[in-house]
Structures are given as structure tokens and as C-alpha cells.
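Fill-in record for Sugar ABC transporter permease.
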Amino acid sequence: MSKLEKRRSTPVSRILIYVLLSIVSLFSLFPFYWMFVMATSPSSAYNSIPPTVTPGSFLVDNFNKVLDKIDFFQAMWNSFVVCSIVTMVVLFISSLAGFAFAKFKFRGKNIFFTAILLTMIIPPQLGLIPQYFLISKAGLLDTLPGVMILFFLNPLGIFLMRQYISESVPDELIEAAKLDGCSNFKIYRSIVLPIILPAFATLGIIVFSAAWGEFLWQFTVLRDPEKYTIQVALAQLSNTQNVDFGMILSGVFWATVPLLIIFLLFNRLFISSITEGSVK
């Protein structure tokens, strides 16, 4: 194949890739669009034939029904508090642990790291009863700290931070800092943190999204409606004989909006942090 033919085939291949990505993106976004359509439609539109594919005019009415059933904004605030604290604590603990596993030598390091990774294969449902027993003994039932504390240690976060620090933080930089008299924590604060900001953004998105979507443990621990997170509060909307799908999906839609905003903010931070980390 000549160079001219290669040049002609390159734009065609790019166009095909863009078309394929556009089709996949549309399929990925369609559930969110359908959720919005149902949130703006009456409950009867849920089972209509042909299905409803255009937004209606019931968005405000459906959301008013949600506000009549549950304390929506209090539940949103509780979820935001829980997810924010869990995310910050996970980022701090995971980055410290990842730094230790990546750059320090100590007895049993590989054993401890392997044990942490093995916890990822244990289904969370298996630990529900003993975790409930421990939280009950600690007096944290029906409290937001009782919801959060089990998620502070994140094996995936430790693994991601360990891998990222191993590849991105040069050993020579750490040795030079030690010769200048820097303590280990000062090395972590002044050298490691600026470099791992992209990993922070990525892990922050993962942890916040997972904490926002958590339901089983929150439903098990919380009993006071004033302490409900948004997932537990939304579950109360279906505890009726006549299920109003427009109302439920309206609540789900508005509960998804803050998560999308957080995702976009972290995504922008991720892009800008790649440049900052590479320069530093």
C-alpha cells in the first residue's frame, strides 16, 4: 500500500471510529433519557404501547408528589455528607497506605497487601450480620457514622494508589527529600500529593459514586426517617399498593443530578491534574 493510500484510509478509519463511539454513547445515554421522559410523564405512560419517547409536562407535579411522601432534601443532604466524608477519608487512607506499600520496605509487606486485595473477592452480603453486630455493640445503629465507618478502608483505593505511586513517584526524588531532612509525612504532603492528583480525581469519582449508590447497608442500619439517605428514602416511595412510576422516576432523576454534577467537576479536575502532575 502506497503512502497516498494510507493517508486516504486514515480519515475513513477515524470516521468509522467516531460513528461507532457515537452509537455506543447514544445507547449508554438512552437509559438516562428514558428516565427523564418517565419523570416528566404520568404513571400511565410507563406501560403505554407504543412507549412514550418524548418528555411530558408532569415533572413538577411528579416531584411535588415525591416531596409529599419523603423528606427529599434532608435525604439528599444526608447522602452528600456521607459520600463526602467517606470519599475524603478513603482518599487520605488509601494514598497513605499506597505510599507505604509502594515506597517503603517492611517485614510482611507483600502478605499484608495480598490480604487486603483478597478482601475484594468477599461478597459484602456475607459480612452483613457480623458488621451489624459490631455496629450495634459500638452504639452506632441508626446513625450516619454507623453508615460511613465500614467504607473508610477501601482495598481498591489502596491498590490503585499503590500502583500509581509506584510508577509516578521516582525513588530518587524521595531519597533526595530524605537527605534534605524531610520526614515521611512531609514527603507525602509536599511531593507525593501533587503528583497523584490525577489518581485522586479518578478514585474520588469511583468512591463517591459507589457510596451514593449504596443501599443494602444503609437500609439495614437506618431507622429514623430524618437520617435516611436518598437511596433509603426513595425506597419508601414504592411501599404502596398503587405504584406511581412517574413519581418514583422523578425522585430518581433529581437524585441523579447531583451525582452527575460531582462527576463533571471531578472529570474536569482529572483533566487539569494530568497536566499539573506531568509538569511537576
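KEY FINDING: Residues 70-239 form a domain with the MetI-like fold fold (CATH 1.10.3720.10).
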